[in-house]
Amino acid sequence: MIGEIKLGNAIFAFPGVESFHPKPESWYRKEGGPVIDMGPYFFTTLVNLLGPAKQVQGRTLTAFKKRIYGAGPKKNKSFKVETPTTYLATIQFHSGAIIQVTLSFDVINHQRNHMELYGTKGSIIVPDPNMFGGSVFISVTEGGKWGEHKTDKMHLGKINITSSSGRSNEAATNANYRSVGLSEMLYSIQKNKKHRCSGDLSLHVLDIIESTMRAANTGIPQKIQTKCDKPKKFTEEEVKKILI
């Protein structure tokens, strides 16, 4: 409906885990940060939609040198931040698409959830890659309305979370089926088929994560060293088989 995707934006942004997590230090150590935390969800979604990535450029920002515990026995005390807490990346894909990605622990609130991709015939809004449900919106006319395509009647879109966290990066209701990847893997092994969450896909996403952090921290564009096949569409018929 939207033609060939040429460019787009993706964003994950909130103030950080310290407001609710009693031991948030690991998110802020040198090996931590928002890319290693949320990159797996966003980058895997982009590879599923666009195919493998080719190159990445980036920049970083650290808004606060110290953070305040908001929960647990150390509440109101501070701890040191050792890693950049915002990454701005531009990822080029082998398809030719270029996507700008913002991953941040420095944003109080925003209204840009979660992905907008722009094609030759229109645009699409993709819901939270950290979950399984959420409406998809499509517009194919300049200044026109956005058509809503609900997923709550689909097997992996049925709402099973009804408590709102109040965070800007999370919907009040959502669908969370995190075991489906393992279920699909087991089913595929039994049927002697290639499973979608393959080692090649996982390695490629890890390559994008590490390359993004390296590019942003050094200011030097990084070539993605690995490549994988674009996973095949996971149809409702196939999902139904692993639910039986």
Short structural description:
With 244 residues, the chain is α+β, with helices and mostly antiparallel strands. It has four helices and eleven strands, in the order βαβββββββββααβα.
Structure description:
It is a single chain. This protein is an alpha+beta fold. The chain is built from four helices and eleven strands. The protein has helices at residues 34-50, 180-190, 199-218, 236-243; strands at 5-13, 53-61, 66-68, 78-80, 86-93, 98-104, 115-119, 123-126, 136-139, 147-149, 222-223. Strand 5 (86-93) and strand 6 (98-104) form a beta hairpin. Helix 1 (34-50) packs across helix 3 (199-218). The two termini are 32 Å apart.
User: Compute the gyration radius: what is it?
Assistant: 19 Å
Helical content (DSSP H or I, runs of 4+): 10-25%
CATH fold category name: Dihydrodipicolinate Reductase, domain 2
Mean pLDDT: 94
Strand content: 15-25%
The number of strands is 11
**Element order: H for helix, E for strand:** EHEEEEEEEEEHHEH
As residue ranges, the low-confidence spans are none
Count of alpha/pi helices: 4
Distance between the termini: 32 Å
Please indicate the count of domains: 1
Could you give the order of strands across the largest sheet?
Answer: 10-9-8-7-1-6-5-2-11
Shape: globular
Largest sheet, if any?
9 strands, mixed
What is the subunit organization of this protein?
Answer: single chain
CATH architecture: 2-Layer Sandwich
**Which structural class do the helices and strands define?**
alpha+beta
CATH class: Alpha Beta
The CATH H-level superfamily is Dihydrodipicolinate Reductase, domain 2
